[in-house]
Amino acid sequence: MSNTARANAFTTFDVGAVRREFPVLARMVHGKPLCYLDNGASAQRPRAVIDAVDDYERHHHANIHRGVHTLSQEATALYEGARDKLVRFVNARSRHEIIFVRGTTEAINLVAQSYSRPLLEPDDEVLITHLEHHANIVPWQILCGQTGAKLVVAPMDARGEVRAESVESLMGPRTRLLAFAHVSNALGTVLPVRRLIAAAKARGITTLIDGAQAVPHMGVDVQELDCDFYAFSGHKLFGPTGIGVLYGREALLERMPPWQGGGDMILTVSFEKTVYNALPYKFEAGTPNISGAIGLGAALDFLSGLDLAAARAHEHALLDHATRILSKVEGLTIIGTASDKASLISFVVAGVHPHDLGTILDEDGIAIRTGHHCAMPVMEFFKVPATARASFAFYNTFEEIDRLAAAIARAQALFA
Amino acid sequence: MELNELYRDVILDHNRRPRNFGPLDPADASADGVNPLCGDRLTLKLKFAADKIEEIRFEGQGCAISTASASLMTEAVKGKTRTEALGLFNRVHRLLTDDDADSDGLGKLAALSGVREYPARVKCASLCWHTLAAALKSAAANVPAVSTE
Questions:
Q1: What is the pLDDT of residue A1?
Q2: Is position B100 within any domain?
Q3: N or C: where does chain B have the smaller number of CB atoms within 10 Å of the terminal CB?
């Protein structure tokens, strides 16, 4: 988008009105207005989500899929209605392709254990990239331990970019699966997702995209991406915790054995033989997070009521502003300078450890994430033990970024 | 709570110029401490003369609280017996977690009391002390002639 288009889109975006939809943004922390810049860890909930969950808990709660009584039918309709919203949100082909899980982590583990484990032979390869979150590393290491397959890691460069050619050059005859982040949680890098999926598909390699950091910032169309699996979490998308989604291509899900056994995932059970339920229920053993799914559905409704193009232009303007302001701070180094970034910024300040910075900023009411961001190989690559990360949502303001910069200066003064 | 209660001058000074920082080779005992939540790492090495800690040095990366706590600890336990060092470990642990703990006789270590108002940071201050306890334990196991009694 051109700068002019960005500016025009921004002028139509009323940040103040959007902020009023998020009750927590009105609170004070240590006597200062909350400045919430930790959206990459978990975004805040709009009133619409809080109300939807509250309404469900007050009026409609019962177990789903198993009662003929009114409440059970209402709960089932709300839960399955949320699934329909997710079908539209990612443009899946059908409700069979939307599996409710606890979050991105569970979705990836499900694919590793149910899809990959039965297929992998010793010396087969699983290909990931250097910038993955631990949730997209460890499940594959466990899988490799179980099957004798090898984990192959595509490199990133000094800007925190993963070049498509370097991933493609590692796609070999034994590569069975390519799993990578759509957006890096530690660096903000947007990966060349379409090209990588196309390259994998051309070689018959299955693809899983960790979309946890992407869905809050960009539209995702799984048919257009043409990926096999796409995983994301509700709570980074302004919904509740403990609910997430695995999108899977129906033909693959159909072939996969269930991951967990229990109620709801069966048609008939005898001690001799169990017949599994149809998709998507085959993968939803036990009573699910009903209120979480309903809350996530409400979050999608809320998002669809926004001018998303304007919201995203505002986020990019925030990133540009933060990059400009923080670049000017002496002693501050931005970690991750990819040309295409989502609206988060990781940095270190000479002489001020990220944890000390986090505590000092908190005294000013500013919430950022400090630490290794569950991406220790990324920290290792940049030779830092940890970074500070400010991650923005469309409800953040330019003033908040200025407050961040001022608080960083105060921390530097304290440690000078 | 004021930030200067946490970042007292003693803490800032020991963060800026950590004492007993660097390698110690050879050493009689060592232990590594890791805070898996934040990635802080610390290696502690000790030399004993009879039952006393003759030399103690640390290396690693950590925040100001973690670095200052380790620096203050090495100063405090040098020349102490193992039993005395473990006694100090217990007192500092109480200082970090118990609002009623007193700091009488703790000297500069009393500066760590501000940390207890910041529960998320207690682990930063206690990492080096847990590492010390582990090093003393491993020394006791490896050198059966030396008793911690």
A1: 43
A2: yes
A3: C
List for chain A the helix, strand, coil content (%; round to 5).
45, 20, 40
Say if the Cβ atoms of B39 and A359 lie within 8 Å: no
The token pair that represents A168 in the structure block:
């493609």
Residues whose CB falls within 8 Å of the CB of residue A180, separated by 6 or more in sequence, listed in order: A128, A129, A132, A136, A154, A162, A167, A191, A193, A196, A208, A209, A210
- Tell me the one-letter amino acid at A230: Y
Its pTM stands at: 0.92
A150-154 vs A125-129, strand pairing mode: parallel
Whether ipTM > 0.85 holds is yes
Q: Which of A49, A109, A382, A59 is nearest to A229 (CA)?
A: A109
- Cis preceding linkage at A257, omega within 30: no
Whether A227 is a known active-site residue: answer no
Domains A3-33+307-415 and A50-304 share a fold: no
Q: What confidence score (pLDDT) does residue B81 get?
A: 96
- For A50-304, CATH number out of 3.40.50.720, 3.30.1300.10, 3.40.640.10, 1.20.1730.10 equals 3.40.640.10
Structural domain span for residue B106? 3-140
The SS3 assignment for A274 reads: strand
Digit-coded pLDDT (tens) for A299-349: 999 999 999 999 999 999 999 999 999 999 999 999 999 999 999 999 999
The sign one gets for the Cα dihedral A202, A205, A211, A213 is negative
Residue among B15, B38, B65 whose CB faces A386 most closely: B38
Nearest CA in chain B to A360: B3
DSSP letters for B132-146:
HHHHHHHHHHH-TTS
SS3 sequence, A180-214? Answer: EECECCCCCEECCHHHHHHHHHHCCCEEEEECCCC
Tell me the CATH number of domain A3-33+307-415, given options 3.40.220.10, 3.40.50.720, 3.90.1150.10, 1.10.10.10.
Answer: 3.90.1150.10
